[in-house]
Amino acid sequence: MTIGEALRKERLKLGLTQSQMCEGIVSRPFYAKVESGKHSINADLLFKILTIHQIDVVEFYSLIKDIYISPQEKLLQQLQDNMEFAVNTVDFQKLEKYKKKILLTNNKIYFMVILLKYYQSALKVSIKSNKIQLYMISGTQKN
Prior knowledge:
Layout: H1 3-14, H2 18-22, H3 28-35, H4 43-52, H5 57-64, H6 71-88, H7 92-103, H8 108-138
Helix pairs in contact: 6-7, 6-8, 7-8
């Protein structure tokens, strides 16, 4: 989603007209061209609009970030999210599946470091889970 599209989405969510959204910041014709993608808006003006209408900047960024990151960064983020879920659910089969995907990528060293990090985390989770189970069975805590 572009900045203009995100502004339009937020404006409609707030139930505002274009004139109300940009009042005192930019002209309505200029703002309309920002929403339609014909003009860019500088950061200062964008933040003024967001601030005046109490639009969360982090939430707004989450709407637009996908068009500003490279396909490799998207792949990395998706892979990290998937691996984190696999670690948290102690799913070694999925981690193995992600390892195979990593081996097919161009940037193997970087991805392997990430994979090793997650395997290490998964092992810690697994060991911790086993200690908790052992404690529940025996009634004594083992370190």
